[in-house]
């Protein structure tokens, strides 16, 4: 099958996981982006805990209000502006509308670009696990849900949404190194490298 993924310039990509681990160890501010169900929150929380970085969930802390109500954009930007002024943080969230605030302050971007079928399966498992309740990375009062619109969003993510992320990175973080993780195996390998003594 042909890979239709849009790509970043090769000089911005980190392709060696050992080199990526060194960047992450030295980083004070990290942005993790990617498709729903890719494992952003899992990876983010492990890295944040391992390196003592305050963890910010875009869904929980910025984007959503209770009852799946989107926080007004001016309020979102006010919160992001305050958070990115901090000296140390890890921010988990893909929304490109705040790239102009986040990327100039970011030491490295980790982009979870996992296969869409894997992500859909992960989202369904997550829905079953948290059925009727709210997962920890989500705003209070936003019970876990899955519908066809959400599945369609995941299925068409690479074609419709990834080019916007690439354009945003090019505009607001052209010198920021980007690690793309394209499988669960790569994610596990990266975490194993990060657990080893420096």
UniProtKB/TrEMBL annotation:
SUPFAM superfamilies: P-loop containing nucleoside triphosphate hydrolases. InterPro entries: Cytidylate_Kinase-2, P-loop_NTPase. Coiled coil: none annotated. It comes from the Bacteria. This is AAA family ATPase. It comes from Rhizobium vallis.
